[in-house]
Design goal:
There is one protein chain. This protein has one domain: Orthogonal Bundle (Arc Repressor Mutant, subunit A), CATH 1.10.10. The chain is about 70% helix and about 0% strand. It contains seven helices and no strands. The longest helix is centred in the middle third of the chain and has 19 residues. The chain is elongated, with a radius of gyration of 15 Å. The chain starts with a helix and ends with a helix.
Length: about 100
């Protein structure tokens, strides 16, 4: 968990996490889902969205595109889709409220 919280803006693979945890990918996935009620990928996305929300609130002048990449997303389209799915608002609407 510490590794994820420190590196969520970087590309992280299940293979990498399982090697760090010293267990198989399937076992890591199962234990993570049991403990956190989400997959490792879902957890990473949630951290990235929280980071993006803070940037949108505190530094909106950076711009949505830069916030997308600063938060660890690879494409603007995927960022918009996940942000809207999790918050119920697009990044643009989030900044205007």
């Amino acid at each position: 968990m510490y590794f994820i919280k420190q590196n969520y803006r970087e590309p992280i693979t299940i293979k990498q996490l399982s090697a760090l945890a010293g267990m198989s990918e399937a076992n890591l996935f199962k234990k993570f889902k049991h403990s956190y009620n989400c997959t490792p990928v879902e957890y990473i996305i949630q951290l990235r969205i929280e980071h993006a929300k803070q940037l949108l609130i505190n530094n909106p002048e950076i711009g949505i595109k830069n916030i997308c990449f600063e938060s660890g997303f690879n494409t603007l389209e995927y960022f918009y889709r996940k942000f809207t799915q999790i918050t119920g608002k697009s990044p643009k609407k989030f900044t205007t409220n």
